[in-house]
Hints:
Blueprint: E1 5-7, E2 17-22, E3 34-35, E4 38-39, H1 40-52, E5 60-64, H2 73-83, E6 90-93, H3 100-109, E7 117-119, E8 123-127, H4 142-154, E9 159-163, H5 174-177, H6 184-192, E10 198-202, E11 209-213, E12 216-220, E13 243-249, E14 255-261
Parallel strand pairs: 1-7, 2-5, 5-6, 8-9, 9-10, 10-12
Antiparallel strand pairs: 2-13, 3-4, 7-8, 11-12, 13-14
Helix pairs in contact: 2-3, 4-6
Amino acid sequence: MTLSTVPLGTHAGNGILELTQITDTHLFADKDGDLLGVPSWHSCRAVVDAMKEELTGCDAILATGDLSQDQSAESYRHFVTMMAELAPPVFWLPGNHDEAPLMQEELDSAGISQGKHLLGEHWQVLLLDTQARGHTYGRLSEQQLALLDEAIDTYPNHHLLVAVHHQTVLVGCAWLDQHNLRNPEALQTRLARHRGSKVVLCGHVHQGFDQVQDGIRYLASPSTCIQFKPLSDEFALDHTAPGWRQLSLYPDGRLSTRVWRLPPDAFVPDFSARGY
């Protein structure tokens, strides 16, 4: 497999690449299906409606996995229908809850791009599949790592944002960090040799996270439904509302980012839950 590159221009023409991340929608075939007390279609619907007000100038939307909770064709169709209301192109990854072949079939038939390498004037964005079929944790295959090598070697002067589903560094939740990427060193070793700015963006952890380690900035983002309580050793839900992340990538390698959320108490989960 070689890079299949999608050119990505900046909406404003100023060299600043504007991205929006939406993640962990956990949709069901039934629009009223709920995940631990939160009706995930309705919460995603509210997020998409709120996103519309903040998407002016956005160049691309990154959907970083766990789009479905029940692996149904209808759940992916619900996602497609909502994304069709947004003007920027959508690019996607599977998460551990997704049925990847069905996901690709449904998103392909809806005309959502299969592109995994987005090339701007100063930045490249590479979406890498970390799904380990049958497991909650993630792993980067040799094929996916080869794509990363190719992106670094082919565009050494571009800054690099890598989007994945699983967290590649520990986020401080003991129960959740056991379901991380199992070979993060393979990613980190490759990023270490890239001379531009390096950012790793993930979903999976249902919470905001922003940390720099060894010159690499690691970001995680809230889900559009339930949120996991940060820094909790045992499974626990958080009181923060569903949300999404906006990123501005500057020509000189700087990145500014903001997490947006729905109003407090918009969707309240079942806090008695002890897992899912």
